[in-house]
Automatic annotation (TrEMBL):
Residues 1-78 form the Acylphosphatase-like domain. GO terms for molecular function: acylphosphatase activity. This is Acylphosphatase 2. Belongs to the acylphosphatase family. It comes from Labrus bergylta (ballan wrasse). Transmembrane segments: none annotated. It comes from the Eukaryota.
Amino acid sequence: VYSLYTEKEGLQLGLVGWVKNTYSGTVVGQVQGPADMVEEMKVWLSKEGSPSSRITRASFTNQRSIDKLELSGFKTRF
């Protein structure tokens, strides 16, 4: 369910990407958009999350600049 809140937050920030809950209770995903909005999303993921989430650690990897968006929309994957 965490992923639905993440999807909503991503859309509100004007980002594109995807998010998925894993069987181990973590969340994985990919986010693209303006750097300042991506940073805002990272803060939200690290400190707030969904109402029922318990965030113990947030890890962001494979960060890079891109010339144009490679994804469209913000989706929850199952």
